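Q: What residues go here?
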């Protein structure tokens, strides 16, 4: 539960940007083109994706706690850069650091929870972890929206993030304990029916299995990428769409918060459900539900329709998010599970960068609704890939 609390702070550190930064791009720095405004998500996605990979490797080599603490230390300059940055380049640089921090901290809390729980409760543990993180995102997005409306876009919203970083670093240094030894004990007792699950693999072999060779691991990796592709779209373009329709800053803050709030709270149910009923069909159905929500955003023109769409998008993401992580843990052997989680999260958070580029280019060429509709169609296709390619009984084998 201490790690759950730490990950809520990790999510809150990200949430300080969700409502405010897209508006900072257009109102303070006068960035007209969607592609230019989305550069901060591209920078965040690339740096976080890379750090996800290194977080798994480093935590296997040096232990989990040092990686977690290092992630918080990297985050210390971020609020100051967001508050005082005189040019957009400073904001982009802050998001490079934020991506590094999120990759190290969030990945490590995932791995530490997998260390601590057995396979029968892996989905439940991932549900708690991701629920805490995204409820942290949602509540902070809502709070910073109201702070920005009352006191301006800077500095107020980012002081919240500074407080989160101080508290998260303090808890990680003083209270969190190392968990790597739990994984070593589990590795000695591990039994699996899958050829992919043997130990003593090189980093290259783990990368190939997770990305391409193993049917379940590769299906999970592509679904994770597409999921965060549409999350990058929601982060960067939804506030701009809502503002262009005449919604107030308070209404935009509500919409920015509802999606991750439903996503966060729903995972308390969906993670445990995947332990009981399996991972495959929950993931496939969740991608389709997300696609429906995106279609509603593209077709909508009012707060009520967009609110319903945000709920659907959050529900679909809740079905997918902890289930994907648990599915990685089902197949990966404990001796290389942290590396496999890191590689999956590399692909998944690479979706932020792909989403920023793709949605920005499409929005510049064809307008916001067309960009959102195209990403919705891609999300539905990803669900079909999961239904066709992923094995259905991995959680039983683990």
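A:
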């Amino acid at each position: 539960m201490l790690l759950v609390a730490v990950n809520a702070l990790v999510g809150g550190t990200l949430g300080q940007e969700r409502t405010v930064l897209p508006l900072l791009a257009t109102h303070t720095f006068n960035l007209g083109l969607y592609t230019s405004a989305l550069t901060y998500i591209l920078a965040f996605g690339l740096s976080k994706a890379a750090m996800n990979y290194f977080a798994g490797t480093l935590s296997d080599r040096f232990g989990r706690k040092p990686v977690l603490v290092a992630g918080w230390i990297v985050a210390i300059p971020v609020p100051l850069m967001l508050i005082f940055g005189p040019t957009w380049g400073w904001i982009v640089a802050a998001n490079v650091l934020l991506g590094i921090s999120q990759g190290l901290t969030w990945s490590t809390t995932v791995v530490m929870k997998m260390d601590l729980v057995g396979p029968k409760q892996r989905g439940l543990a991932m549900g708690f972890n991701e629920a805490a993180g995204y409820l942290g995102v949602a509540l902070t997005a809502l709070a910073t929206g109201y702070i920005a409306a009352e006191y301006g876009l800077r500095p107020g919203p980012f002081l919240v993030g500074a407080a989160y970083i101080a508290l998260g670093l303090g808890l990680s240094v003083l209270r969190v304990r190392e968990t790597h030894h739990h994984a070593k004990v589990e590795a000695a007792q591990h039994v699996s029916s899958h050829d992919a699950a043997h130990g003593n693999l090189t980093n290259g072999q783990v990368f190939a299995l997770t990305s391409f060779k193993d049917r379940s691991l590769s299906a999970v990796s592509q679904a994770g990428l597409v999921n965060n592709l549409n999350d990058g779209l929601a982060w960067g373009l939804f506030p701009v769409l809502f503002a262009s329709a005449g919604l107030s800053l308070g209404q935009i803050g509500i919409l920015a918060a509802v999606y991750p709030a439903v996503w966060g709270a729903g995972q308390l149910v969906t993670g445990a459900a995947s332990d009981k009923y399996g991972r495959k069909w929950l993931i496939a159905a969740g991608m389709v539900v997300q696609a429906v929500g995106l279609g509603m955003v593209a077709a909508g023109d009012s707060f009520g329709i967009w609110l319903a769409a945000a709920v659907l998008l959050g529900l679909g993401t809740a079905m997918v998010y902890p289930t994907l992580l648990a599915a990685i843990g089902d197949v990966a052997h404990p001796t290389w599970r942290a590396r496999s989680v890191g590689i999956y999260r590399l692909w998944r958070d690479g979706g932020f960068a792909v989403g920023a580029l793709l949605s920005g280019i499409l929005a510049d060429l064809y307008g916001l609704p067309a960009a959102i509709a195209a990403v919705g169609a891609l999300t539905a296709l990803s669900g079909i890939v999961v239904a066709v390619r992923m094995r259905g009984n991995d959680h039983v084998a683990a």
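A: Context that may help when evaluating the design: The chain is about 85% helix and 0% strand. The mean pLDDT is 86.
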